[in-house]
Amino acid sequence: MQSEKRLKVIAEFSIHPIGEGTSVSRFVKVALDAIAASKGIRMETNPMSTVLEADDLDSILKAVSAAHEAVFRLGAKRVDFILRVDDRRDKPRTMEDKLKSIGG
Question: Is the whole-model pTM more than 0.90?
Fold first, then answer.
């Protein structure tokens, strides 16, 4: 019988407005604000991307969609994003567990 503890989906996300100049921090900030406002999402931002954690893939996809739309609302004409998903269903995982497994 599977544990009652919910399994986690962990994803890495990076978003890039195209044609908006060298500094795009204002676009990244609105994307991160949209993710932070999403229900059921934990996030950890690093210099190159943001790692997301949620109970299900739909929550991740909704948060990423909200970030994507926020960048367009700020005025971007073209947006590119990268999303890499680790959807492990055989045992509960967290961002911290993944680091511990490699001695981090």
Answer: no
Q: How many helices and strands in the chain, by DSSP H and E?
A: 3, 4
Other C-beta atoms closer than 10 Å to the C-beta of 95 total 15
Closest CA to 45 of 26, 53, 72: 53
Find the helix packing angle between 57-73 and 25-36, rounded to 10°.
140
Q: Which domains does the chain have, with CATH numbers?
A: 9-100 (3.30.70.930)
Secondary structure (H, E, C), 38-74: CCCCEEEECCCCEEEEECCHHHHHHHHHHHHHHHHHC
pLDDT tens string 57-93: 999 999 999 999 999 999 999 999 999 999 988 888 8
